[in-house]
## 1
Amino acid sequence: MIVTTHTARFDSLELDCGRALEPVDIAYQTYGELNREKSNAILILHAFSGDAHAAGISEQTGKPGWWDNMIGAGKAFDTNRYFMISSNVLGGCSGTTGPSSIDPRSGHPYGSKFPPVSIRDIVRLQKKLTDSMGIEKLLAVAGGSMGGMQALEWAVSYPQSVAAAMPIATTHRHSAQQIAFNEVGRQAIVADPDFHRGDYYDAKHPERGLAVARMIGHITYMSDDSMREKFGRRRLKLADEDSMFEVESYLRYRGGQFVSRFDANSYIVITRAMDTFDLNAGGGPLEARFDGSGTRFLVLSFTSDWLYPSYQSQEIVRALRSRNLDVAYVELESNYGHDAFLVEAGEQTALIKGFLEKTFQRL
């Protein structure tokens, strides 16, 4: 399946910070066919470093999407039955308005002048997109990690527009440890001499800092078991030095690969949005945010995920159950750490297929 990325433009988007983006673009892809009633649409929500290309083979790059093992004919998100939409988040660097986009007021990239955005802002732009497609109610919203945060925000901001939500390997707010890892990554970027306070687009980009930030992040995505199995203490023989641990080589490769496709300012903006996300920022009990909701929930977590540990998913589940909402929760066995939601397709597929089938039948 060859897929193309499309772009929708809207005149303006009001942000939580009090500023507005005028105009604002959102890049997206679709998979499957929207039915006549427009009742089979599912919004796929990507994690921090993802983009709109969730499935199929990109017409631009020739590469498969980041959740290609889950989206397609006969897969968890079955394109024979459902219509999937996947968009790049606000503040990103893959077609949606972000710091590297041209500011129409100056004719130059926004850079340091790009406003802070929130998860709620990201969802608000997604709602504009689905509204423009004439979709009044989504069958489901689904995503892992930061995608799970967006799914939760959809459920509380637009409960009448979402039949079901699938937050996977996520949290309703970051812990101190999660904020700390993001801050170390941001400081690695800011400390790069090429950062120039975020206005580097006409010169060399802060590639070293961004690569280090990605290396730090990638460590948190894996588990001790998966790193031991994948690398152990094996060494590589190199021409210009005695040897290097395989894990060192892998992290350097990942860092270099990331630099070629991501923007340092987007790294800062998006991680800030994740850190400031708090489903209960208004105070009062978390469960009160779900009062009056008719949304069904499927919450998934993974045993070896120490970045978004299961207790955080369980906090969400307890809040939902306290309001007698329709919620299913499963903690899946996996050695892959936080990356499990991207690679463990088998059990996720069975759970998601059944959940979507029941949701669709109840419409």
Note: The chain has ten helices and 18 strands.
## 2
Amino acid sequence: MNNNENNSVGRVKTHSYTFAQSPDYLQLESGEKISPVTLAYETYGSLNSNGNNAILVTHALSGDAHVAGYFKKSDKKPGWWDFMVGPGKPLDTDKYYVVCSNVIGGCKGSTGPTSINPATGKPYNLSFPVVTIGDMVKAQKSLVDFLGIKKLLTIIGGSMGGMQALDWTIKYPDMVASAIPMATSSRLSAQGIAFDEVGRQAIFADANWQKGNYNDTNKIPAQGLAVARMLAHITYLSEESMHEKFGRTLVEKERYGFDFSMDFQVESYLRYQGESFIKRFDANTYLYITKAINYYDLAREHGSLKNAFKNVQAKFLVISFSSDWLFPTSQSREIVRALQINRKNVSFCEIPSRYGHDAFLLRNNDMEKMVADFISFVYEKAEK
């Protein structure tokens, strides 16, 4: 690790915030109640005296609170968006106070199906209530209040993180100065729901899933979760990027094996993605978070997409990527049109990229400059 070389925020620590402790509780959209609730979070930079330089980063399906920096010197990789967060970076920690939390329902320190149910002393597993994107945002609001943030300068996130960003502007319009939803949609398409369902069915079909009642003393449904991840990962890429990276190149062989072992490099890559995923993620959590994404539908919730954005006050920068077929540009344009109909302040850009849905997680000069300039503009306006 070389902090000076990449302007890293350096060594970081994950914190925990617990709220809704009995007799209080968090009321969920399903009607269920949960108590207590813990959110794992990380912060970078400092909150200014006005409490108006805070940026909330919201993560995608498999993300977590560790968005930047390193836990220890031996870490091989920094946080998942390290190139965006740090001194002199688009989310400049010399100017801004950056916050990222693991969502409720997650498995990286926040309350979710892997957490201990205080009523039983055992993991919730499938007794954990189904949560929504709105529930995630409601829990984040408690954290933001706890941190003393009066108003969020910006909320930024891609994919499921973009859904959270949109929901924040609708549920708490007075709390959000600007939002940058990236590679996202106001609702997941039927095709997207279908992919998620196949992934869940792969987990259900694993004999070790045991109707969600696996634990540390039992074998985990690793095979099912790995297959779910392999399928999902295909949707995150584009045909062009897969062809460029793998083509039809064989795996350390010159001819087909004429059996069912791996022949192609792309097969090896997908198996690696599945095997690495099971080491850092939980199968039940995958079920819950994909369900939350499937339920998200702003038009259904508010009567129409126009109605959904009627009362928002934030300035918007909506970003899509040309090769993203999971959350295509047409879905971003729907958001932009609804904002324009309501005469809201919105800028939009489709960034050329051959990397598919994952493009927002990869370095891109256009994206980085656009984000940096937009946030700087909003901040300068807020300071006047």
Note: The domain at 193-289 is CATH 1.10.1740.110 (Rna Polymerase Sigma Factor; Chain: A).
## 3
Amino acid sequence: MPLDSGEKLGPITLVYETYGQLNNGRSNAILIVHALSGDAHAAGVHSLENPDPGWWDSCIGPDKAFDTNNYFVICSNVIGGCQGSTGPSSINPRTGKPYGLSFPVVTIADMVRAQRHLIDYLGIDKLLAVVGGSMGGMQVLQWTVSYPQRVRAALPLATTARHSPMLIAFSEVGRQAIYADSNWNGGDYYSGSHPKSGLALARMIGHITYLSEISMHHKFGRRLQDRERFGYDFKTDFAIESYLHYNGNRFTERFDANSYLYVTKAMDYFDLSQGHPNLAAAFAKSTDITYLVVSFTSDWLYPTYHSKEMVSALTAIGADVTYCDLQSNWGHDAFLLEVETMTGLMSDFLERVEAEVR
């Protein structure tokens, strides 16, 4: 498969899961695209031995926002990832060893290009909807620009049409944490110790941006962890510190450091207006798509103005766009946590789109 960098990648494995049944007309398929740390396991549980529910289990299933009584839901792991799809930890068929940094740089458009091959493989001409938050929202937007004839509706949630300098700065600090780990070894660490300390630190940095000051006060305040008074040392004192350490270390159990580098770089490169006079021009061929754009008032990673810029561009081309800036204290993670509000909003929207298809 040709990549935006000019290189080619293949053979490619794309891991995916499906939920519900594809109808006879093949018109009820919804593609769910995941954020940075997500994967194909969006809902349900795999087995008694692996009982962790999918990352959006609260919204996918019978009588949920993406009602599998009505819809055929698809979720795949992006290329460049580390949960089964081809990425830097995959075996390079030319060498018989993991790619490491010899893996070509991939973009959001490359991820979507691979997903389009999956949709072709499944025999689906047109998706009822493409849905995703954060990096998933970037993929949603890219779908509407790259393959507007293959999408009826788009739901970009808590996302942006381009990474701002601040977002690129956060990404780079996370990457530098990995580079600084003594086990990173230029990305060639698969036969030895992995750079877990660097990856955990990168995750801690990123996780802060997913929260909000209000949610931190609500969840942690200035509470101490496992002690009654300050230790006046450099061990963990506060509950928020313990939380960040826990999440950082847990992340290293399921994610690859090189994939973190590649995926964050893909997000930094993302700029939907690149090659066009402006953002509205990028959406010029997407006028037949129905949009639901959602932002959250406390999201400082992708603030409301990012979504308003998208809405203005879509309005300029005459697209059918509904915009909701939802009140929430949960920061960027609100698109995963505001389940009741999001369920009502997305269910009503999809019902309207489905009615228009009939």
Note: The mean pLDDT is 96.
## 4
Amino acid sequence: MILEAASFDLSSTLISGQCFRWNRVEAGKWRGIVRGTVLSAHQIDGLLHTAFESPGGMAEAGSEGLRYYFDLEQDYESTIRQLKGDPRMDSLIERCGGLHILRQDPFEVLISFIISAFNNILRIKRCVQGVARGWGDSIGDSGSGEFGFPTPTALSRASEEALRACGLGYRARYVLESSACVAGLGDAFDSLVDLPTGELRQELLRFPGVGPKVVECVLLFGYHRLEAFPIDVWVRRAMCELFYRGRETSDDRIARRAQREFGATAGIAQQYLFTGFRTGRGERTHRRPREVV
């Protein structure tokens, strides 16, 4: 299936720290598991070439589902024009152009970013894969080795010991408790999507293991609230260097500054800051920090 995606860059989007079930199989070619479906994708110029390697929710949704997932209908070009009005953002946008915010499953994002706390991307991916393998449904043939992300009910039935064995460490308890909370809410969890961002933030903060950074990630990557602004070690470094002349400052001040500078599309700016600095393409002047997200 071929989709027009002139302002979209597949690789920049998939390395931007917002998803953990995509892997590069060779230069420019990717393979991922999205909503219980194995999907392969690569991009040639402005065309996105995709193929469903298994049945599942994404395969049933077809091209419309793909356009929704990759957020191809969003007017990113106008957002980029606004961001490029700030010379501090110009080089990041030129070098990391085409970043989109994927439209992912909120429960998978919630659990993935609870796992992400004080963790690096490679380990997060391994942990998420272990959780899927342990409690998710097998995709396609029983021997394929691919698994969808577990349902809240299935994951709530895990043991803390088994989750720790997947590498989750102290996060295992939070994953178990939050999964039980979501399972207990049932349809009420799905209805959270209808809440205004402020109310949604407060509801998400009730889940075990969800703090200020994780909640912003869930808002941005799970609920597509583009005004959300997750602050991790890379974004903190970027904001301090670009907006505070290298001086350390608090996350609260950074968050307020981000809202003043970027407003309703702060989350898109955050992706450029994160990806540009993490991949070594930002104008860093200090020692590279230990990678955590």
Note: The CA atoms of residues 1 and 62 lie 9 Å apart.
